[in-house]
Design brief:
The protein is α/β, with parallel strands linked by helices. The protein contains seven helices and 15 strands.
Length: about 300
């Protein structure tokens, strides 16, 4: 059953990936309840995340099941077992886990390409690899609007949106995140893309909620905001709950934007309900479907909106 599904996905998605000249894409994501794993290609490597689900297997039986599963994936894709990296993804409704470093014996960091841009991928140390593949199309949308723009990336993670914006000719690029680790990673992503301009490209270590209260008004032309669903980091002044706080966050961003400026707002809180009544813009468009890549169709667990300042 799993082999049939994997083969179907592989033949279909490999063809599309080749057509689009993509080397990083998702092969499988918990399509079958008996196989609660996610499989992603990163060039010549495969990253497997196993969702933490209850099962009746002993440790030995589970190890055997997983070994057989990996061998099947290897046989089908011709990716050797020593080019596969595995993580256990605990059940959570947000991306907070990305900030927790794992205990690993040896880090595996590679450089991959997406649409002509280079990104550092860490296959071992964190729950997420450093590049959210589900926002591939959103990154292209941002790039198409970034020329000569003052661009702001909030909750910037490893700043893939910022790389796209800078490479597309943004006048200034500001990336804001609470994690120094990810800001350093962001700077490294800029370096490998030969994007060097310390005046135009800024990496700011800050709590986004607090940062927006002090940011200049009517300044930014283009903004991306992709916050976690929930965060109670000790480094934050306040707890972030995206359902409760999204109106305040969006309205603060709108204040910082020029009239006609564009905000791309995304959340991976599956039960999210946008409060249109209290957002200070009449131009809010749900672009979730338009930003869903071929390898996430039917399996996407996030929302995306394009909001224009009136």
């Amino acid at each position: 059953m799993f082999e049939n599904r994997l083969l179907k996905n592989y033949k279909h998605r490999l063809k599309q990936a080749k057509r689009l000249n993509l080397t990083c894409w998702r092969l499988y994501d918990h399509d079958l309840p008996e196989f609660p794993i996610c499989i992603e290609f990163y060039e010549q490597y495969i990253y497997i995340a196993e969702y933490n689900r209850r099962h009746a297997l002993t440790e030995e039986e589970h190890a055997q099941w997983f070994g057989t599963t990996k061998q099947l994936i290897s046989n089908m894709t011709n990716v050797p077992l020593d080019h596969m990296y595995v993580k256990l993804r605990k059940r959570m409704s947000h991306r907070e886990g990305q900030y927790e470093k794992e205990e690993v014996t040896e880090s595996k960091i590679i450089t991959v390409q997406e649409n002509g841009h280079k990104f550092l991928i860490n296959l071992t140390d964190y729950l997420d690899t450093g590049l959210f593949l589900d926002h591939r199309l959103t990154r292209q949308m941002v790039a198409s609007e970034a020329k000569d723009a003052h661009f702001l990336n909030l909750f910037s993670y490893t700043s893939s949106f910022s790389v796209y914006a800078a490479a597309a000719g943004a006048k200034t690029v500001t990336s804001v995140d609470l994690s120094k680790t990810y800001l350093t990673w962001s700077e490294d992503n800029f370096k490998i893309n030969l994007l060097k301009n310390p005046v135009a490209y800024q990496f700011i270590h800050a709590d986004v909620k607090q940062y927006l209260k002090t940011s200049p008004s009517n300044y930014y032309d283009l903004v991306v905001m992709d916050p976690p669903t929930f965060s109670n980091s000790k480094r934050m002044k306040d707890i972030l709950d995206i359902q409760r706080d999204h109106v305040e966050l969006i309205n603060d961003v709108l204040l910082a934007m020029k009239t006609g400026g564009v905000l791309y707002f995304s959340t991976n809180f599956t039960q999210f309900l946008i409060d249109l009544e209290h957002i200070n813009s009449k131009q809010v468009k749900d672009i979730t479907k338009a930003t869903t890549p071929f390898d996430f169709e039917g399996r996407l667990k996030r929302w995306c909106y394009k909001i224009v300042k009136d």
